[in-house]
Amino acid sequence: MQFTAQDRAYRRASRGGSPDLVLLDGEPIGRLWVDRSESPIHVIDIALLPEQRGRGIGTVLLEQLVGEARRAGKAGRLRVLRTNRALSLYRRLGFRVAREADVYAELEWHGVDAQAKTAS
Q: In 80-97, which positions are buried (b, 16+ CB within 10 angstroms) versus exposed (e)?
């Protein structure tokens, strides 16, 4: 029931987003929901099974998204609970707090590749 409610909320909030399964050795270990339809690229949700956390998988996924954003000349955005331990990962990857509201922080990444800018 919670998954269904969350899924509906994500679909309403992100008309251009879609969920993707995160696979490891062909087995599902998480979900990545990204809206690439506008700038900035918006990470709606990234979730890994508890036993897969802390192994660098989230880092790889986010580095790939940052690279994608850089090549497209776009910024990146995500929203996270201010108490979420992944906040240190996001900061390490160059995300900065754009604003805070209630228990959430909205983070943005503004690195744009010079090559991508000149190709536009």
A: beeeeebbebbeebebee
Residue 43 has pLDDT above 60, yes or no: yes
Q: Is 57 exposed, middle or buried (0-12, 13-18, 19+ CB in 10 A)?
A: middle
The phi and psi torsions of 18 (rounded to 5 degrees) equal -150, 145
For the chain, report the end-to-end CA distance as a whole number of angstroms.
44
Q: What is the dihedral sign for C-alpha 88, 28, 21, 13?
A: negative
Task: List alpha helices for the chain, DSSP H.
Answer: 2-13, 57-72, 87-92, 114-119
Give just the sign of the alpha carbon dihedral 115, 71, 58, 109: positive
Q: What's the pLDDT tens digit per position in 46-94?
A: 999 999 999 999 999 999 999 988 898 999 999 999 999 899 999 999 9
Among all chains, which residue has been given the structure tokens 């604003």?
A: 99
Tokens 């995500």 -> residue: 78
The amino acid that residue 74 corresponds to is K
